[in-house]
Amino acid sequence: MTRLDQLSAAQIASGVAAGAFSATEVARASLDAIEARDAEVQAFLQVSADLALKTATATDELRAHGAKLGPLAGVPVAFKDNMNLQGTRTTCASRMLEGYESPYTATCVQRMLAAGATPIGKTNMDEFAFGSSTESSAFHPTRNPWDAARVPGGSSGGSAAAVAAGEVSIALGSDTGGSIRQPASFCGVVGLKPTYGAVSRYGVVAFGSSLDQVGPLGRSVTDVAIAMNALVTGGRDPLDSTSQDVPASFSAHLEDPVEGMRVGVIPALMEHESIAPDVRKGLADARAALEEQGAQITEVELSHMASAIAAYYVIGPSEAFSNLARFDGVRFGYQEPGSATLAEQTALSRAHGFGAEAKRRQLLGAYLLSSGVYHEYYYPAQQVRTLITEDYRHAFARCDAILLPVAPTTAWHFGEVNDPTQMYASDLFTISLNIAGNAGVSVPVGSSPASGMPLSAQLQGPAFQDANLLRMARALERGIAKKGLHMPDTVAPAFADRGGEL
Question: Does residue 242 register a pLDDT over 50?
C-alpha cells in the first residue's frame, strides 16, 4: 500500500488527476493518519472530516465528468486557526473566541480550495499568535513529532507539526515575527514567509497589521512553491489594501541552477554567542551545500539587526492592542455572565477571555500608545524600522539571498523557557525580516548530533523576489540531500508506520 506521507503534494495531485487513486481515498488516509497520530501530537483544534470528504467527493465527480482539475486536486491541507473557513470555528486558540463560527472564508483559504485542496481542519497555535512555542494555546499544547517532550515552535506550531507528522501534505501558517519559519525549523519542514503583500490577509484575524503575512509549510520546497502558486492565483485581492499582483511562477524555474547567484553571510553574526554549536554546524553545512551547487558566498552587513527585537516589541504590541480592542464581549468574543454594568461586563469578559500572554501584549501596547509615551517609543521604533529596511536594501545590492540561522537553538523542552523575554529573544534572526517586509524561508539541513532534533537554515531575499528565493532554497535542498544529511520527503520517524495508507 502507498503511504500518504511518502507522497509529495505534486504526486498526490497528479495521482488524483490520473485516476491512480481518488481524492476521497487521500482524504480518508489523511483522516486515518490524524486518528492514529494526533492524540500524541495534538496538532489540530478541529478536524473537519465531513467538509473534507464532501470536498474530496466533489473533486472525484469533476474528474469523472472529464473536467480539468486544479494543481492541488485532492491534496490534504490544514489551516492555522486564525484563518476563517466557513463551516468551521476560528478560535485563534483563545477562550475569547472559543465558540466563534466562521461567517465567511479567508481569501488565502479560498484560493487553496479553488486549486483543488481538501480542507482537513484547523491547527493549534499560540493564542492570537502571541508566542514561539504553541504553549500559550488556551486548549492544549502541541507536541513536536520528533520528540513529544519538546515544543513544536510557534505560533504556527500546529501547522508545522501536522506536516511533520505526515497528517497533511501542506499547511498554512501566519508569520508576524518568525511564526512560520521557526516552527518549520523546529519540526524539520520547509516554511516560507512571503513578501508582505504577496498573499492576501483578508479573513485572517490580525495580530500586527503591518507585520503579518500568510505562507505555506510543506515537506519540500517544491510543495511550498506549488502552494504559493495557488495563493497568488487570481492576482491582487481588492479586499486587502496591502495585497499586490504577484505572478504565479514559483515552480517555473525552481530546478534552474544557481551558478553565479550570490549568497550573503554575516561573519560576526555566525559567531553570535546565542547560537548553539549544532545550529552553527547546520549553517556551515548549508553554506557548503550552496557553494557546491555553484552559489558564490559574499560578506554583507545588517548593522541594526540587534535593534530589531526592541523595535518589534514596540510596533507589534501597539498594533495588537488596536486590533484586539474589538474583542470586548459585546461585539465579539467571550461574554462574562451576570455583570451589573456594561463596563464591568467588558472588563471581566476581557480578563477571563484572554490568556496571560495576550494580556501582556495588549497592556504593553496600551502603555506604548498612551499620551506622553507614544513619542518616546513608537516613533523611534518606526525610525529603527527604516534603518533596518535600508540595511536590507544595501545588503541585497551585493547578494541575491542572505544565509542566517532560523533560531539560536533547536526545539526546547516544555517548561524550559519560562521567562517571556527569553522567549522573545528566540526570534532574533527572524523578526527583522517582518519589520522590513522581505521574504524568508526555512529549509531543513539535517539533524543535531547531540539531540537528533531537526536543524534548519534560513534564506532571506528581497521583496517580491520570492520565486528566486525558492529557487535558492531548492538548490540548498538538493545540496543537503546530496550530502545525505536530510531527505525532504520523510516524516518524523516515530510516525513512519502509523496510519495514512492509500
Answer: yes
pLDDT tens, 370-379? 988 999 999 9
Look at the chain and report how many structural domains it folds into: 1
Backbone angles phi, psi at 102, to 5 degrees: -65, 120
CATH code where residue 165 lies: 3.90.1300.10
Crossing angle of the two packed helices 221-232 and 107-114, in degrees rounded to 10: 110
Helices (H), 123-250: 157-164, 181-187, 221-232
Per residue in 274-283, pLDDT tens?
Answer: 899 999 999 9
What is the set of active-site residues?
A: 80, 155, 179
Q: Which domain holds residue 413?
A: 4-302+393-484
Cβ atoms of residues 272 and 408 within 8 Å: yes
Helices (H), 245-307: 267-270, 277-292
- In tens, the pLDDT along 41-50 reads 999 999 999 9
Find, among 184, 219, 164, the residue nearest to 456 by Cα: 184
Tell me the pLDDT tens digit for each residue of 124-166. Answer: 999 999 999 999 999 999 999 999 999 999 999 999 999 999 9
Residue 315 lies in a domain: no
Listed residue (167, 131, 220, 132) closest to 42, CA to CA: 167
Domain membership of residue 10 (yes or no) is: yes
Any domain includes 57: yes
Residue 290 near residue 399 (C-beta atoms within 8 A): no
Nearest to 153 by CA among 177, 185, 121: 185
With respect to residue 381, please indicate whether it lies within any of the assigned structural domains.
Answer: no
Does the pTM exceed 0.85? yes
Q: Is the peptide bond before 155 cis (omega within 30 degrees of 0)?
A: yes
431 Cβ contact partners less than 8 Å away, ≥ 6 residues apart: 177, 178, 308, 309, 312
